[in-house]
């Protein structure tokens, strides 16, 4: 019988490839510490759908709960690769554009303030909508309002 030193055993590999894109988005937001309500608002999904996705993540990771997930995959979830993925949710430029939209600025004024063309503002807005899984400014206001209420 061959014994393997615990330090030489391979660390568990997180099944990132087995996660769907919606599950990855949920995992990233869970990792960043957002509340269940904020995550469902940010992804424009019901809490029930969020809980279903979280259950799938835990099932694929072979964990009972989020605490076990963090304990089991701590090193992977803190890795530079995963941090880079989690930071893709909204970058500083996108956050600034959201703040200006919420303040009522036109695309032209946003472009002037950021020294970028209107077409670039529209590009950033399309990326924001895509990342937050929303379709228009009304959805953006709803998501931001619900996040403000639960923060």
TrEMBL record:
Q: Does the keyword Transit peptide apply?
A: no
Q: From which domain of life does this come? A: Bacteria
PROSITE patterns membership: HTH_LUXR_2
Q: Which BP terms in the Gene Ontology apply to this protein?
A: regulation of DNA-templated transcription
| Alphabetized UniProt keyword annotations | DNA-binding, Transcription, Transcription regulation
Q: Which residue numbers delimit the HTH luxR-type domain? A: 12-77, 83-148
Show the CDD domains listed in the entry.
LuxR_C_like
User: What GO annotations for molecular function exist for this entry?
Assistant: DNA binding
- Ranges in a coiled coil: none
In its keyword annotation, does this UniProt entry include Transcription regulation? yes
Protein name (Swiss-Prot/TrEMBL)? HTH luxR-type domain-containing protein
